[in-house]
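Key result, reporting period 2: structure in, sequence out.
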């Protein structure tokens, strides 16, 4: 019956009932508007809200009117309601402003700045706007509008210790031309606004300016019914109230007894009584500040002068913060509620009317506080609770859920808050308003909360982004209660949440082993597959991290892949794909990553305008590029784009991984400058990072030390990573760290330790990861060749590259030293091991043929000959055949000349070869090709022809010119030589 948006009154400006135009203050506001922010501060009842609303009407300024209250302590609530206001103010923008969901929590300042920038861009009108700040304001012509104004009313109601003030200060830091902010408060700007004050961005208007002067008081009295009589009354009223608007309304009761016609107040319940004397003001020279005195005035001058039915109406409706006529009638049973409310509003009796299609009314805060205090002192507790419950149900029906919950709590009817919490939890989580939901839950008595597993479940979810230990404790208590109640479907969901805490924490996976075993067992016994689809990805990724050997891991894999196909939510699909990508990486099943990317591809357009999902999509693309395709430059570009979007949107949860990918990709192509910059970003938050992340950082530092030749330092870093991964319980990471440490020990001269680390890595069947097995086998091959056992070395190579080919592992094995892979690839080519795969691997990673053995092992004569034969089979970017027919082969394909033959570039190539191919003086080549041309012209011809030759070969590094000597670089260009 009363259903409406609960946000209407919060974001709707008051409708005024014939206010007087205070032109003096309008000009002051015009002048103050030269700065972006106007701070209006004066005590309650000073007419601040009426002043600003009438000013906006007079100047025809479009606005968003936002009423601040204690609920805004949950920042997500502010962004939710302000987003609704923005949609209402600028309906041409179809895309809503983002909600403050958990992924933004690590970067609230950035999110706030970007959010307000987006808001301001929507509010700036394409038509006439405010003049540039600092300039005088020309008068508006009829039909013109000024710039947009954002009003924050009742700012003092925001809790003093809330982050709300810092958030608002950040949002108001960069207000563009065409937008002004007016803050209405009973207090001065809080300390968080000191930067804005110091930067001269705030104009302040206080009590001395806002209070009524004598002329305005006279016009006020005329507005109440006087027609020019009573100048002495005007003077006395002004003197005794010192221009305080609320005081004038109160004291006008005696004036109204003789000056106001009876029909003005008839039907409102008010009975003017002539007392014969003017009330004595409680405080002279400044506005009333003592609430007790103010309340006494309300009692004597307004409340006590009404009939009993009206008094009951006022006391009951005080429990409706915002009410329609229908709501007031429902609560009070009075059919003439409209007469009372409209009469109060029309006569400025502390009742505001909100300008909405279905008008709502709100008592002035002073009057509202008085009525509530009076009710608590004069209405029996049982009757008071009855009113609260009635009002709460009416508020719930009208959509004002938060106010309803508050009244239910005050009435100690806790079944209702429990019901509303459970009913609205999903919507509040989607809106990012978990703090509000948590406040409801914590308001429920502990004996109720601790006995209700559903509430404990929700409380655990609320705490998940903020305190993992508290979240896990609440969820475990919920789980235990559900098991006692034998509510297994819900227990499955809660168990999934408990396991999810391990995904975020990853400080120790060992504690959740029993949970996973229980979950798998109950699903198989009870057939609860459908109940577990939403959490299947959580279980899969935890098993990938913690126990790839788990006997049921393929069951969870199948369930997750099925959930991806069934899901109709883009966000849910991406979340599940993220878990699948992690699983396939740990498994070393890169062909699986390729399949997942085919699912992600069509989703990219859908998430383009959703920053959080767009970032996740970019992260998955970057991972795939770096690890599954060896496309380092593409991976760096994607990761850099992700960091840029994250900075703009204020979403910092993926920064570590974007920076990580930049380090790995840049190192793999020898771009150590870019890798170093990425490493600095990774290290920036290392101290506060969880243990699993610290272990990953130690691996990066170890690889960085290896690249720089710091073998001892690398050993220390890898051993630190081993200790941390063992503590956390991640076998795949542990095995890979042992393998890396084996290389560091080997190169530091400690072959025995290298063998020991390799043995430790192989325990547990290489953690059941093809990646670990592949890297371990190639490391064993290197050790076998090093000790002269070519047969074992080839056997290990054959097994290792067979694994890589079968599972699509194209990852750079040792990005810190490609010379190792160059030697292993050359030996594999000589032995005929997977030549096509090896060729593709070499080209993807741009590995150049080996020119010496890797440090520190030496090779015998037979091994050197074998290596040479392998390099002859090397897939050079350019191969030149000179015996018989002269032929150029580029990337395995003969170069075919169409049209005009490149005669001069070919002559230059043949001349370089004929003159030895290495360190050939430019002069000799020029003499052969341009014998009759002078020196300068010959040099110019040589330079032009060399450029054409490089273009012909398709590789600028194949022909190198240095200090006047030209060389065919044997790393990129192979030339057939006579045997």
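The corresponding designed sequence is given below.
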């Amino acid at each position: 019956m009363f259903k409406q948006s609960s946000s209407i009154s919060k974001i709707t400006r008051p409708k005024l009932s014939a206010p007087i135009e205070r032109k003096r203050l309008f000009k002051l506001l015009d002048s103050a508007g030269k700065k972006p922010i106007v701070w209006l501060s004066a005590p309650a009842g000073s007419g601040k809200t009426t002043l600003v609303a009438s000013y906006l009407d007079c100047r025809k300024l479009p606005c968003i009117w936002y009423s601040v209250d204690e609920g805004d302590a949950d920042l997500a609530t502010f962004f939710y309601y302000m987003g609704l206001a923005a949609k209402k103010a600028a309906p041409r923008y179809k895309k809503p402003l983002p909600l403050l969901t958990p992924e933004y929590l690590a970067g609230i300042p950035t999110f706030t700045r970007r959010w307000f920038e987006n808001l301001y861009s929507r509010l700036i009108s394409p038509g006439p706007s405010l003049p540039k700040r600092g300039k005088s304001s020309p008068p508006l012509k009829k039909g013109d509008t000024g710039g947009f104004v954002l009003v924050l009313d009742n700012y003092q109601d925001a809790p003093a210790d809330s982050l709300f003030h810092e958030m608002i200060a950040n949002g108001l830091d960069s207000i563009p031309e065409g937008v002004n902010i007016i803050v209405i408060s009973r207090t001065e700007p809080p300390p968080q606004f000191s930067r804005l004050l110091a930067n001269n961005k705030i104009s302040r208007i206080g009590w001395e300016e806002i209070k009524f002067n004598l002329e305005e008081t006279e016009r006020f009295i005329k507005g109440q019914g006087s027609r020019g009589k009573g100048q002495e009354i005007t003077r006395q009223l002004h003197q005794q109230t010192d221009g305080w608007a609320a005081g004038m309304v109160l004291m006008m009761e005696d004036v109204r007894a003789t000056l106001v016609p009876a029909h003005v107040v008839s039907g409102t319940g008010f009975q003017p009584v002539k007392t014969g004397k003017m009330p004595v003001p409680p405080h002279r020279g400044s506005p009333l500040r003592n609430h007790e005195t103010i309340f006494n005035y309300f009692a004597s001058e307004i409340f006590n002068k009404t009939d009993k039915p009206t008094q009951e109406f006022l006391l009951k409706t005080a429990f409706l913060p915002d009410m329609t006529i229908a709501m007031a009638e429902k609560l009070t049973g009075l059919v003439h509620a409209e007469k009372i409310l409209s009469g109060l509003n029309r006569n400025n009796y502390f009742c505001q009317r909100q300008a909405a299609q279905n008008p709502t009314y709100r008592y002035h805060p002073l009057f509202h506080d008085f009525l509530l205090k009076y009710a608590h002192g004069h209405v029996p507790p049982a009757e008071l609770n009855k009113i609260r419950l009635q009002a709460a149900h009416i508020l719930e029906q009208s959509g004002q859920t938060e106010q309803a919950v508050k009244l239910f709590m005050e009435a100690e009817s806790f079944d209702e808050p429990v019901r509303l919490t459970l009913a609205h939890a999903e919507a509040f989580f989607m809106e990012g308003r978990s703090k509000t939901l948590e406040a409801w839950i914590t308001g429920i008595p502990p004996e109720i909360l601790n006995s209700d597993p559903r509430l404990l479940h929700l409380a655990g979810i609320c705490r998940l982004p903020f305190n993992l230990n508290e979240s896990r404790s609440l969820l475990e208590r919920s789980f235990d209660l559900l098991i006692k109640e034998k509510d297994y479907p819900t227990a499955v969901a809660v168990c999934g949440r408990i396991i999810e805490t391990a995904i975020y924490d990853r400080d120790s996976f060992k504690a959740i082993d029993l949970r996973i075993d229980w979950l798998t067992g109950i699903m198989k016994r009870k057939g609860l597959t459908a109940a577990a689809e939403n959490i299947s990805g959580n279980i899969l990724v935890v098993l990938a991290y913690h126990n790839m050997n788990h006997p049921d891991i393929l069951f969870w894999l199948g369930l997750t892949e099925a959930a991806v196909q069934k899901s109709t939510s883009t966000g849910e699909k991406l979340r599940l794909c993220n878990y699948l990508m992690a699983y396939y990486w740990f498994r070393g099943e890169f062909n699986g990553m390729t399949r997942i990317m085919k699912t992600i591809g069509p989703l990219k357009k859908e998430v383009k305008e959703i920053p959080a999902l767009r970032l996740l999509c970019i992260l998955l693309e970057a991972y795939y590029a770096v690890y599954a395709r060896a496309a380092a430059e593409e991976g760096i570009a994607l990761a850099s784009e992700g960091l840029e979007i994250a900075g703009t949107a204020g979403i910092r949860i993926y920064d570590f991984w974007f920076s990580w990918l930049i380090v790995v990709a840049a190192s793999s192509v020898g771009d150590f400058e870019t890798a170093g910059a990425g490493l600095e970003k990774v290290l920036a938050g290392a101290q506060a990072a969880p243990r699993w992340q610290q272990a990953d950082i130690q691996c990066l530092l170890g690889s960085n030390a290896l690249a720089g030749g710091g073998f001892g330092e690398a050993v220390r870093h890898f051993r630190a990573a081993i200790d941390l991964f063992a503590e956390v319980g991640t076998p795949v990471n542990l095995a890979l760290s042992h393998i890396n440490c084996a290389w560091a020990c080997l190169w530091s001269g400690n072959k025995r330790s290298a063998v020991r680390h390799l043995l430790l890595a192989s325990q547990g069947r290489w953690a059941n990861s093809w990646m670990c097995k592949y890297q371990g086998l190639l490391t064993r091959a290197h050790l076998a060749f090093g000790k002269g056992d070519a047969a074992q070395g080839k056997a290990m190579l054959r097994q290792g590259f067979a694994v890589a080919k079968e599972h699509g592992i194209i990852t750079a094995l040792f990005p810190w030293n490609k010379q190792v892979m160059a030697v292993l690839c050359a030996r594999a080519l000589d032995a005929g091991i997977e030549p096509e795969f090896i060729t593709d691997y070499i080209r993807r990673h741009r590995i150049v043929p080996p020119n010496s053995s890797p440090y520190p092992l030496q090779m015998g004569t037979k091994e050197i000959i074998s290596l040479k034969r392998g390099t002859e089979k090397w897939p050079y970017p350019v191969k030149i055949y000179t015996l018989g027919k002269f032929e150029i082969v580029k990337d395995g394909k003969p170069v075919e000349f169409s049209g005009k033959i490149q005669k001069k570039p070919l002559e230059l190539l043949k001349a370089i070869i004929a003159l030895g191919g290495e360190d050939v003086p430019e002069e000799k080549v020029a003499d052969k090709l341009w014998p009759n041309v002078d020196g300068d012209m010959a040099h110019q011809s040589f330079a032009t022809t060399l450029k054409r030759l490089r273009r012909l070969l398709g590789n600028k590094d194949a022909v190198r010119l240095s200090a006047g000597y030209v060389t065919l670089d044997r790393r990129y260009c192979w030339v057939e030589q006579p045997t």
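The chain is about 60% helix and 5% strand. The chain has a mean pLDDT of 84. This case is discussed further under Risks and Mitigation.
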